[in-house]
Amino acid sequence: MKKLIAVILSVLIVLTAAAAGLADTITIAVPNDPTNEGRALLLLQTAGVLTLSEDAGITATAADVVSVKDGIELQFSEVEAAMVPNVLQDVDYAIINNNYALDAGFNPVKDSLIIESAESPYVNVVCVKEGNENTPAAKALAAAVLSQQVFDYINATYDGAAVAVAENPTDGYDPEVDYDALNGTVITIACSPTPHAAILKVAAEILAAKGITLEITELQDYVTPNTVVEDGDIFANYFAHTPYQEKFNAENGTHIVSIAGVHVEPMGLYGGKQADLAALGIQ
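User: That's the sequence. What structure does it adopt?
Assistant: Structure tokens below.
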């Protein structure tokens, strides 16, 4: 824990409002990867807490904050996304990815103080390595995760914490795929535990009806699911949203491509030392 706190303090970024009589410093923990930090800052901008530079975009960082609400001093603790729930008690607020909020026992819709709209560019996607996207295995997997069964499961189970986005859900199968030829095939996929693994179990039942095994490997971080697909150790992954995957490819020279946009997980701001939004000047 001491090591974790030291890491947090080492990346502390202080933004001070240019006004007299500032309130006590308000500390907000945010994910430290580029797309999720930008997403967190955009959430605060939408809430009227701060303003980002016009060209900041979805990969904004604290350096792109040009102003904060009068009378507020903000201090950002940039933390690896999976660890944000662990530091909630040490900060005033934390902005947590929904999968990690669910893992920590939160109900994002009920427990968050601010939450994104489900109308979001941050669609969680099933991905494969470029060159595999048109294979029968990829098409079968895409049809299964975009099925009406999966659509109904997501919306019934997560009550707004995850929202299915398939516009035209399938019956679970792709009419262009020769399922007899795939009988006996094992499709491997890496994923985050919540909610991705549970969603994939629904897809696995669909594929099993055709003799196809979906072998699910749960991973905790936001890097390994891409590297194992890039290296060919695992066929597909399902853990991240589209902007993250695009940024990861650009920075790492990888070739990860989406085959299905499955759901959105609205990101939320949670109270740590603060029980409400009054410290941010929001009633």
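Residues 193-208 form the longest helix (16 residues).
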